[in-house]
TrEMBL record:
It comes from the Bacteria. One of its GO terms (biological process) is ribosomal small subunit assembly. Residues 188-221 are annotated as: Disordered. It comes from Phyllobacterium zundukense. This is Ribosome maturation factor RimP.
Length: 221
């Protein structure tokens, strides 16, 4: 945990950090449209996912740069993005727009996400075979500029207990919900509210409230 006031340069750097895990296809088109809009109102994109839920649902997962996301934030993002998506019209069918926080068992999409949640259990899928497999689960032990080291918490026979996974090979990564994760997420929330964590390094806050806050709006062509 870092003490002290953040500088303007650090805040800008945190806001501009690019995701290392991004979308493809229609999801990527939507991301390209909304990411700069989110940035202009003080949010950053976590993930876009178009699914067949309730006919067709466009889920936009986002958060403030400090990791917070309230019910009011979800409403603001939904109101801001709706007219933009109406104009750009990236989806040629009726769909529901759902804006939500990443939640406590969040996707990890930036290198800083892995740093923030070092010590917690993550599930990682890779785009190619690494050490004989493409799925890994374990505790985040170390993060470098190029890779994350994972110590397995459920080692199977023949699998290496410690694996270094290059960031360029990660196709998906998500935290596993544990009692330790819930406790640390709530503690970070409290520390942030009381000003003990600089906003750009607070990996998760207000998630317990916001994970249940999903704003849904029917979209038309």
């Amino acid at each position: 945990m870092t003490d002290g006031a953040e500088t303007e340069h650090e805040t800008a750097s945190a806001g501009l950090e690019e995701r290392i895990i991004t979308e493809t296809g229609v999801d990527a088109r939507v991301a390209g449209i909304i990411e700069p809009v989110l940035g202009s109102i003080g949010f950053r994109l976590v993930r876009v996912r178009l699914s067949g839920l309730n006919g067709l649902t466009l889920q936009i997962m986002t958060e403030r740069h400090d990791g917070t996301m309230t019910v009011e934030d979800c409403e603001l993002v939904s109101r801001t993005l709706s007219p933009v998506l109406d104009v750009e019209d990236p989806i040629d069918r009726h769909y529901h727009l759902e804006v939500s926080s990443p939640g406590i068992d969040r996707p990890l999409v930036r290198k800083s996400d892995f740093v923030t949640w070092t010590g917690h259990i993550v599930k990682i899928d890779t785009s190619a075979v690494l050490d004989g497999r493409k799925k890994f689960r374990g505790r985040i032990a170390e993060v470098t500029g190029d890779a994350v080291t994972v110590e397995s918490d459920q080692a199977s026979y023949g699998d290496k207990p410690v694996v270094e996974v290059p960031f360029e090979m990660i196709s998906e990564a998500r935290l596993i919900l544990t009692d330790d994760l819930i406790r640390d997420a709530l503690r970070r929330d409290k520390d942030l509210r009381e000003g003990r964590i600089p906003e750009d390094s607070a990996g998760s806050a207000d998630e317990a409230e916001a994970s249940a806050a999903e704003q849904e709006q029917t979209k038309q062509d």
